[in-house]
Design brief:
MoeA_C_domain_IV, Molybdopterin biosynthesis moea protein, domain 2, 6-stranded mixed sheet, Molybdopterin biosynthesis moeA protein, domain 3, molybdenum cofactor biosynthesis, molybdenum, Molybdenum Cofactor Biosythetic Enzyme, Chain A, 392 residues
């Protein structure tokens, strides 16, 4: 059994960024990182563009202008303005080449087919010049940029439909146990609905890891060996829930040993989540999580999350930790460090009732974990506690 810090260090040391290139449609590339520079195929904007609703004018030395036309967004005609001419124009519409200023409509008095300008104007006011954002051939986004919703919108505005990004890991979730049945089926005495795979799948999806498959294994040694052999071969990372303890029907550990998966550690001095395994076979990482749901999810956030971030070469690998004022009391039993399900809000944190490793209801309400070190024995109201913010 090892301590938390050692477990984290071993995981980081044995996780290598994938850095493999794949192509993604722009609308499906959110959360990925660019693996090469993206160059603008067009100017943005591609034409002189009005920044607001108003009037495009050809300036002269008087306040009165004759309105000769109207241009809406999407129009492509080019009226010719002489000095003293104006055209009604709308935001995003093309500004005629012969116009040299756009005056906002709030600064204009309209009288039939003429307007009077009430404020001073300057050349090129309220006109977005060609290539103001980016010019054709320039770098639009640099390599290693993470594609946020704004970045997706920006690339789409340039007419880009596909980008080269770093591949995300192929992940397999494996559940074990004869007692597990799918939700929606009849529940026999002694059976429970399987939930860990849905829980972990949702956690992965929320972090924008979508290349995930789920595999269900019964408590049979040969079936366990065969199934694990196949998923190890076809995936970058495995999440196994259950079967890692030392009971008569816990076959995962024995199967991993037969398949020559290198054990990097087994069991961590913590609560919940003590029976936790990490190993690797060649480049495939194997996490065997406890079967109890709260313990499984705690290990996912504390350890698997770190590995996932390193696989995709994110600079920040660990979840954010803050110091918060406790609104609750807590007495720790035993000498293991603990992760307590909690609700964090604006510098304060409430430790919830129901800290059992099987308690999903409490975790369902949580957005944080309070960390209680080995040396701590209790938490008092208003104590400052280390709080880990969950990505929920």
């Amino acid at each position: 059994m090892i301590i938390i810090e050692s477990a984290l260090n071993i995981i980081k040391a044995n996780t290598t960024p994938l850095l493999k290139e794949t192509k993604k449609q722009v609308e499906k590339a959110g959360g990925y990182k660019l693996c090469k520079d993206v160059y603008a195929p067009i100017n943005m904007p591609p034409f002189r563009q009005s920044a607001m609703d108003g009037y495009a004018v050809c300036l002269h030395d008087k306040q009165i202008y004759n309105v000769i036309d109207e241009i809406k967004a999407g129009d492509n005609h080019q009226p010719i303005l002489k000095k003293g001419d104006a055209v009604r124009i709308f935001t995003g519409a093309p500004v005629p080449d012969t116009a040299n200023c756009v005056i906002m409509q709030e600064k204009v008095m309209v009288n039939g087919k003429s307007i009077k300008i009430t404020d001073p104007m300057n050349l090129q006011d309220n006109i977005r010049s060609i290539g103001e954002q980016v010019k054709k051939g320039q770098v639009a986004l640099k390599k290693d940029t993470k594609l946020t919703p704004a970045a997706i919108g920006y690339l789409s505005s340039l007419g880009i439909t596909e980008v080269a990004v770093y591949k995300k890991p192929q992940i397999a979730i494996i559940t074990t146990g004869n007692e597990l049945v799918e939700a929606g089926t009849y529940l026999e005495y002694g059976q429970i609905y399987e939930s860990n795979s849905k829980m972990l799948l949702s956690a992965l999806y929320s972090l924008k890891f979508y290349e995930v498959t789920i595999h269900n294994i019964k408590d049979d040694y040969q079936q366990t060996v065969k199934a694990l052999s196949k998923v190890i071969e076809n995936n970058d990372l495995l999440l196994i829930t259950g079967g890692i303890s030392v009971g008569d029907y816990d076959f995962v550990g024995k199967a991993l040993a037969e398949l020559k998966v290198e054990e990097l550690f087994y069991k961590v001095k913590q609560k919940p989540g003590k029976p936790f395994f990490f190993g690797k076979k060649e480049s495939t990482l194997v996490f065997a999580l406890p079967g109890n749901p709260a313990a499984s999810l705690t290990c996912f956030y504390m350890y698997v999350y770190v590995s996932l971030q390193k696989l995709i070469n994110n600079e920040r690998e660990d979840l954010q930790r803050v110091q918060a004022k406790s609104a609750s009391k807590f007495i720790k039993r035993g000498d293991r460090p603990q992760f307590l399900k909690a609700i964090y809000n604006n510098g304060n944190v409430e430790i919830l009732e129901g800290q059992s490793s099987a308690m999903q209801q409490t975790f369902a309400l949580s957005n944080a974990l309070v960390f209680v070190s080995e040396e701590q024995t209790k938490i008092k109201i208003n104590d400052i506690v280390e709080t880990i913010l969950l990505p929920v």
